[in-house]
Amino acid sequence: MDGSVRLEELVMRFGDFTAIERTSLTIESGEFFSFLGPSGCGKTTLLNLISGFLTPSEGQVFIGGEPMAGVPVNRRPTAMIFQNLALFPLMSVFDNIEFGLEVRGVDRKTRRATAEHLLALVALEGVGERRVTELSGGQRQRVAIARALAVEPRVLLLDEPLSALDLKLRQHMRSELKAIQRKTGITFIYITHDQGEALTMSDRVAVMSAGRIQQVADPMTLYRRPATGFVAAFVGENNRIEAKVIERLGERVRLDAGALGELEGHVGKEAGLGGGALVSLYVRPEQLRPVSAGASGPTLAGRVEAVHFEGAALMVQVGLDGSGERLRVQLGSEVSRTFADGLAPGVSLTLGYDPAETVVLPRDDGSLVDAATGEVVAAEGGSHV
Amino acid sequence: MFRQLRARFGGPLAAAILALLGIWLIVMVTLPQLQMIEYSLRPNLLPAQLGGPDDRLTLANYATLFNNEIHRAIFFKTLWSSVLVTLLTLGVSYPLAWYLAKVATPRQAALCLLLLIIPFWINEILRTYSWFIILAFRGPLNEVLMMLGLIDRPIRFLSGDGGVMVGMVYAYILFMVFPVYNAIESLDDNQVRAARDLGAGTIRTHRRIVIPHAKPGIATGCIMTFMLAAGSYAVPALLGSPGSRWFTQIIYNWFFEGGNWNQGAAYAFLLLVLCIGFMSLVMRVFKVGLGDIAK
Amino acid sequence: MSSQRLMAFGLRFYVVVFFGYLFLPLAIMAAATFNDSRFPTVTPWDGTTLRWFGELWADGGMWQALTNSLIVAVGVLVVAVPIGIATALFLNTVSSRAKPFLYALILSPLLTPGVIIGISTLIFWRQWGVSGGIFLTVLGQATFIAAYVMLMVTARLQRFDRTMERAALDLGASQWQMFRRILLPFLKPAILSAAVIAFLQSFENYNTTLFVVGYDTTLTVYIASKVRTGLTPAVNALGLILILVTVLLAIAYEVKRRREAARQDVQA
């Protein structure tokens, strides 16, 4: 059963507005694939194009290698889990799960057997006769999954299905979803604005912004090696420092950060950044750590402005000497235990980092899009996240 | 239109929807009205004369109303009386609607609404007939009034327009109470409190806060009541006398006693124009649209 | 007593008087049924009797009129309910520049006096050789009752979550299956209410019916003619029975409606 999904030169316009810029992408059969992006980035449109609720303006969708042009929603080998679940409130749990089989003319006995089997799969035995309105949020979630699986889709489309749940349940359902996906081997296409969901569950993630896919990668690569400024800023937290390339040494670059002195960073092999290029250096808060003043490697000197206790970590805001720019520094329990007493506002601090764990990207890139909202904003240097 | 329907319901169902809508709007609503207007523009002819020189469009049927002093008087009386019925009904209904919407406790309001709905479900004829008994020459009202010594001899309530108007207010009051109640109910209590708090008295609060908010409901109630009053046949037929005829009775007579359908159609169209005119006037005065009325 | 308190007291007094005004006439009419007087009245009271019920029972014209009324009401249901549902679905689905115009046309039967609907129906069908009778009565009444059905169905349709539709299609349902299994069950309560209202509207109608009924007679037409000619307290007996039936129906309907509303509140 081939559950691969291929988008070929896909474009979607609504009147003058282009919701999806030209996009090509292949999702492997059996993959847990997420589209991650802020609201309005086009990810829901993409899902609707795959499920058949929308017809693309240009290009095509292939599922299992077959073109889907002209194939209506109710004939596609996909099933959707809706954001509000869209369970049928007037029907029992059994009737909900059996609906897809019923409309296909499957006989009552087979239907019931399938429903029982699926209820067991989602750990909900014994609730079949109940009305869906009598179930809790988590139970409804499972019924929705069982209902979608009942039609044996090759691809399961999930439209932010966890967003209505409370935090604890949401985290629990993540592992459940992942387990179900592994058990069934069905391709899962998951859309969300919650990076935690995307990173924990997915085999690969596509980060989207303003109708464009910014980067497709596995979660680790996405986090360590963001390909664009938008990804660097949107996925996880990042400090951005504007600089100019002095020289490039393989994957290393030496940077002139003006008043901050000389810094170092990592660039991808393919990035064509030569001497003099204007760049942004991204350093994650957890990569920054206090060092003694004369330590080797790149350092940043500043003054503690605020300290926030966040349970597992200590978040320190540091104003840099010279530029006054602010960095966020996350100290894990080991470091913070030794430093905690000395970390009062006003204390001077020298920060070091491992250049291999940073990313240097061309400066213009990413400043066009506001990472928090996904809106396109005017290109503007200097400010950092 | 078909495309949107087909996208949602599929071809056969979309076709069925459009067919039903089409039959209703064209065969049941529009064409009969147009036919009525066409009828009103033709003279009443014998079958042999059809297609002859006399069979042409004419405004003669409309001229009849202007030339017939009695009919004209009845037309205007119907207009004024219907306006009066509408205003009376509004006056009687408004305090009750206010009470239900803002003064009564939820339990009281629920009970009152149920009590209001019951007569609403009872036949207009029966409701009117009950007044026929009360207002009769030897009926209970005259008896009570005489017992109280207010009158020496019974009054003939059923000979003037008074009885008709009392009966109409009674028959159509719920068409006023419900829209006004619904409109007042949607008013935020805090607005009333704020007005009181700022020193506005009862009358000013109603004039400046409640009534402007309830405008769509008041407009709906007035339009419905006027339409029902002006178009009523049952109430004047039961409670009126030959001396106090209603315009609908004239129309009826053209059809079933005078045998002049063309003339009747002209009068019916004039009644329709009267109602549309009143509706447009109310909608303009209250600045409400058709969408507000259908609520 | 302050003026505010006086006002509040006045309002309560008014409400009591109002309900007296609403029910006293019906009570008097009901009471007159039991008065052993040749003429329907409560003054003077000539003794208590049940004979008017017997007289009503023996009245063949009444039974014929009742039968006609029931036939017409069922006919109106058959015509008006599908039209009302279709119109509600149409308005809920279509967006077009012609819609405001169509909407006005759809509402127009509600704002047209009943006599005019009767007259135009009568005139229109004459050219096809159809004269007044049960058939035209059904058509005339259905013309405006369909609009009531439309309003009631629309009110419920506006609360329908269209994701349900998408979900059904996504699970492989055809559009017809979606309509049959999802949308129609959702609309059912409103359709049933609309059917009850339509039935009653038809049963009670006088103004439209009068013009299209021809030589047939419905119960309301029968009552009206009785009141004007040959009035006896048997009319009151009929009125009393109709009132009791409608009151029972109204209460049952209200209780059911409220119970349903309460259940939906619990679920929401």
Q: Would you give an account of this structure?
A:
The complex is a heterotrimer of chains A (385), B (295) and C (268). With 385 residues, chain A is of the alpha+beta class. Helix content of chain A is 24%, strand content 32%. In chain A, strands 6-7-8-3-9-10 form a six-stranded mixed beta sheet, with helices on both faces. In chain A, strands 13-12-11-14-20 form a five-stranded antiparallel beta sheet. A five-stranded antiparallel beta sheet of chain A has the order 15-19-16-17-18. Chain A is elongated. Chain B is mostly helical and 295 residues long. Chain B contains 14 helices and no strands. Chain B has helices spanning 2-9, 11-40, 60-67, 69-103, 106-121, 124-135, 140-147, 161-185, 189-197, 202-230, 234-239, 247-256, 261-286, 290-293. The mean pLDDT of chain B is 85. With 268 residues, chain C is mostly helical. Chain C is globular and about 75 Å long. Chain C starts with a helix and ends with a helix. Chains in contact: A-C, B-C. Chains B and C meet through helix 1, helix 2, helix 4, helix 5 and helix 6 of B and helix 1, helix 3, helix 4, helix 5 and helix 6 of C.
Mean pLDDT reading of chain B: 85
Share of residues in strands of chain C: under 5%
| Total helical elements of chain B | 14
Uncertain stretches of 5 or more adjacent residues of chain B: none
**Main structural class of chain B:** mainly alpha
Order of secondary-structure elements of chain C: HHHHHHHHHHH
CATH class of chain B: Mainly Alpha
CATH superfamily of chain B: MetI-like
For this structure, the quaternary state is heterotrimer
Mean pLDDT over the full residue set of chain C: 87
Q: How many independent structural domains of chain B?
A: 1
Estimated helix fraction of chain B = over 70%
Q: In CATH's first tier, which class of chain C applies?
A: Mainly Alpha
How would a crystallographer describe the biggest sheet of chain C?
none
Main sheet makeup of chain B: none
